[in-house]
UniProtKB/TrEMBL annotation:
Taxonomic lineage: Bacteria, Bacillati, Actinomycetota, Actinomycetes, Micromonosporales
Name of the protein in its database record: 6-phosphogluconolactonase
Organism listed in the record: Micromonospora globispora
Family per similarity comment: Belongs to the glucosamine/galactosamine-6-phosphate isomerase family. 6-phosphogluconolactonase subfamily.
Stretch forming the signal peptide: none
GO MF entries: 6-phosphogluconolactonase activity
Amino acid sequence: MSEASVAVHADADLLAQAVAARLVVKLLDAQADRGQASVVLTGGRIAAAVYRAVAALPARDAVDWSRVDVWWGDERFLPAGDPERNETQARAALLDLVPLDPARIHPMPASDGPAGPDPEAAAAGYAEELGRAARPGHAALPHFDVLMLGVGEDGHVASVFPEHPVHYESRPVSAVRGSPKPPPVRTTLTLPAINTAEEVWLVASGADKARAVGMALAGAGPVQLPAAGVHGVARTLWLLDRAAAADVPPRLRSLR
Ligand SMILES: O=C1O[C@H](COP(=O)(O)O)[C@@H](O)[C@H](O)[C@H]1O
C-alpha cells in the first residue's frame, strides 16, 4: 500500500489540465513499459473536465489509443446513451474523439443491455469481463495502470457510499441499490478491487469537497468515509484545487 501524496492547483480549470497532462504521460509510460496501457475512468464534473482537457491536448496524439484498455470504476444503472451515464459523458468528452479500439472499451452494462434490467446480473457480467482480461496467474482482475476517482461531498468514491452494505461485498464488482445520490441503482468496483490498481488518483474540486478530502487524509475510517479506504499499489495521488484542499493537513500539501 502506498503513502498518499497531494498536489494542489489554483482552480478547477488548472486542476483538470494538470490531471490531463499527467494522464497522457502515464499512458505513454505504460505503453513504453508494457506495450499497452489501461485506465479506469470515473464519472462526475471534474472527471468530465479532465477528459475534455485530454481531448484538447496536442500531446494526446503521442498515445497509441488502439493499445489502451478503458474500464470504469462505477456506473449509473441507466439505459445505454442516457446522458447521466458515466460512459455517455466520457464518450462525448474524450472517447469518441480519439482512435480507441472499440473492443478495448469496457463500459459497465446498461439497464437495457444484454445482462437485462437486473443490476446484480450486470455486476456479475462485468466481473466476468474483467476476469477474461485478468493476467495469467493473477486474481480475477486485469492490471490497471491508473484508476481515477472523483470524491463525493459525503466522501464516496466510485459508487461506494458511506455505511452502505457494498462495504461488505467480497466480489470485485457490486450492484448498489439505495444510493443516496441519484440515480439510486448503480454498479461499482468494490474497494478491494480498486486497491489493486498500480496508481489511484483521487481528483476533487470545489469547497463542497473540502470536508471529505480533509477527513480522508486525516485518517477517517473507510466505512464512514470511503475515500479514506483507497490506495494504489505503487502510488496514491490526491489531485485537488485550492478550494477542495482547504482542510488538508498542511504537512501533506504541495502547492502548485
Ligand atoms: O455519481 C457520481 O459522483 C461521483 C462524484 O461526482 P462529482 O460530480 O461530485 O465530481 C463520481 O466520482 C462517480 O463516478 C459518479 O458515479
